Amino acid sequence: MSNKVRLVEVGPRDGLQNEPGSVPSAIKITLVERLADCGLCHIEAASFVSPKWVPQMADGHAILTGIRRQPGVIYSALTPNLKGLEAAIAAGVDEVAVFTAASESFCRRNINCSIDESLARFTPLLAKARQHRLKVRGYVSTALGCPYEGNIAPAAVARVAGALYRIGCMEISLGDTIGTGTPNQACAMLAAVRQEVPITQLAVHFHDTYGQALANIYAVLEQGIRIIDSSVAGLGGCPYAPGASGNVATEDVVYLLNGLGIDTGVDLGRLVDTGRWISQQLGRPNGSKTGRAWKNES
Ligand SMILES: CC(C)(COP(=O)([O-])OP(=O)([O-])OC[C@H]1O[C@@H](n2cnc3c(N)ncnc32)[C@H](O)[C@@H]1OP(=O)([O-])[O-])[C@@H](O)C(=O)NCCC(=O)NCCSC(=O)C[C@@](C)(O)CC(=O)[O-]
Q: What is the Cα–Cα distance from 42 to 35, expressed in whole angstroms?
């Protein structure tokens, strides 16, 4: 295996968008800063979506303008439409992400339009992002199963991923939104998607509802994936995917990659401390097995 993997830390966005209570902006800011101090180079810090849909993310401007920025770190945000992009630019975002799905039902529940309508909506957003020299990532949710439609055919995922790539998304992140996928499914899905998008431009974004995320990551690493999304302390879930648990925990992914001799540039001890801290702030159990087991002297 090539020995470099890029981690995209989505805890401050995917993690906190699903918290039942409102998390103070000061805590979110401290979280983003601490994650950067751990050596994470790409942090999805905010989301510029409708506050009526996801009130937990209403303070994106305060987060992006409030953080102490570290050179070399990308601070990105979700932007579902032009309005979101304009707000993200005003807040000084480094990179943005659009999001759609491989299943019609999930797409409609999450962003209130069909898949094709979402792609049409992204086209002017991509043009504007280009004017501002901003890279745009594209997410495909429900890549390994949908809470409303069940199994999703790999060809459906490939169609949407290919469309996002062709309209100008520089990287496509494949989301197992409800965390039901298994390694064989993940590899079959990836085999279809890589016909449409070069493997170097693909990321995986696996939730861990059924405890399969690390196995799926290992399987797709063997297929050549080198960009992995994860969330400190396994925070997260999608408000429009009932029952789905958090993302795979960043601590567990770093532990796995360290064991494989793959470099992430992340200080695992510091990351564990950050995961314990945010879990305490939120009053929830730490979702990282490594975070729970880690002894400071190890
Ligand atoms: C896409 C919309 C906006 C369509 O929502 P809509 O209701 O169809 O939009 P609209 O254009 O009719 O606007 C309705 C209201 O929202 C406002 N509005 C409209 N856009 C914005 C904006 N950007 N920022 C702030 N406000 C906005 C707009 O101004 C208007 O306000 P009003 O006139 O009623 O006062 C809505 O459905 C939405 O915000 N959805 C976001 C849902 C979401 O954030 N889901 C979680 C993130 S995705 C995810 O977690 C999956 C992922 C990425 O992690 C991968 C995986 O795990 O699968």
A: 9
Return d(Cα 220, Cα 187) in angstroms, integer. Answer: 6
- For 289, residues 6+ apart whose C-beta sits below 8 A from its C-beta are 249, 252
Tell me if residue 38 is catalytic: no
Q: Which among 18, 50, 82, 160 is the best mutation to test ligand 1's pocket, defined by most ligand atoms within 8 Å of the CB?
A: 50
For residue 213, the surrounding DSSP H or E stretch is: helix 213-222
| Nearest-angstrom CA–CA distance, 190 and 76 | 25
Pocket test for ligand 1, best of 17, 19, 49, 103 (most atoms within 8 A of CB): 49
- Domains of the chain and CATH, by start: 6-297 (3.20.20.70)
What separation in Å is there between the alpha carbon of 252 and the centre of ligand 1? 31
DSSP at 137: E
| Nearest atom in ligand 1 to 141's CA | 58
Nearest CA to ligand 1 atom 17: 50
Tell me the per-residue pLDDT of 154-204, one tens digit each, with 9 for 90 and over: 999 999 999 999 999 999 999 999 999 999 999 999 999 999 999 999 999
